[in-house]
């Protein structure tokens, strides 16, 4: 990158036109510009359905080709240049994100003849490179790639599996040295389902992720495994009642109770730094009781507990309670 140098006021151009100071320099010889910033940004994006044009051919109308027909890709190019002059100190910064691609497809179960057991399959992938530099001072680069696959098994269990790989680097251009380099990669997956029993719905969920990181010298700085298990509960109970009042009037009691609750237990294990290995537990319960169309009572509460596996003195718990009554006339 080249350093940008500002010229004298009478030679400065803004979008290829002389900069107009409105006669200030002629009327006041002591006037001085304290700062000037010029930024140019560019962004181009597009989307492409690769095999969309082949849908007119008979052989391509078979459901076996659905994964090909559903392939879509998108990409973008982003660039920004910023030139600044603050009290005579000039600088030039540049940033770019390219390439930046995303591709996806669906209905993968069709050509594999798994439609009887599997549905809602979808695969996504993305790749991105980024650069940010301040001329003569620092440079930051990064590369990220990721992919995931989701599907529903037996129309009951929702599965998701993903992979992430990223690399970032920081450089000091004054000393021409690498100040930081981070590499991380990880796998993650989760299972979700919903069970119904009367007016109640239960949603158990489990997810697990693993990631590793290292610094510029190749030394491992993190080796974490994260596990989370949770259960969500939703209930909707409605038992209306009617009472006959004197003078022929009727009192209606809605008696509707909506309950939302969740319980989660998470574990983080770090093979490099044991002090980052913790267990987290949290529970919350919220309810909305409608006594009549004019009277509503909301209540809730929560409890969290954090337990450090190496430093027991850092364990702590929190409690929370809420309550609200609403009367409408």
What does this structure look like?
The chain has 329 residues and is mainly β. Helices cover 2% and strands 67% of the residues. It has two helices and 18 strands. It starts with 12 loop residues before the first strand and ends with a strand. Mean pLDDT is 84; it is low at 1-7.
Summarize the structure.
With 329 residues, this protein is an all-beta fold. Helices cover 2% and strands 67% of the residues.
Strands, helices and their partners?
Elements (H helix, E strand, L loop, with lengths): L12 E2 L2 E2 L5 H4 L7 E15 L16 H4 L2 E15 L2 E18 L11 E17 L3 E16 L3 E16 L4 E17 L1 E3 L2 E15 L5 E19 L2 E4 L5 E4 L2 E15 L7 E15 L2 E14 L7 E12 L2
Antiparallel strand pairs: 1-2, 3-4, 4-5, 5-6, 6-7, 7-8, 8-9, 9-11, 10-11, 11-12, 12-15, 13-14, 15-16, 16-17, 17-18
Task: Give Rg in angstroms.
Answer: 31 Å
Uncertain regions: pLDDT < 50 for 5+ in a row?
A: 1-7
Gross morphology is extended
DSSP strand count: 18
Please give the share of residues in helix. under 10%
H and E string = EEHEHEEEEEEEEEEEEEEE
Individual helix count: 2
Structural class: mainly beta
Mean pLDDT: 84
Q: How far is it from the N-terminal to the C-terminal residue, by CA?
A: 69 Å
Strand content: over 45%
Largest sheet: 14 strands, antiparallel
Task: Please give a handful of descriptors for the protein shown.
extended; 14-stranded antiparallel sheet; disordered N terminus; mainly beta; 18 strands; two-stranded antiparallel sheet; 2% helix; 329 residues
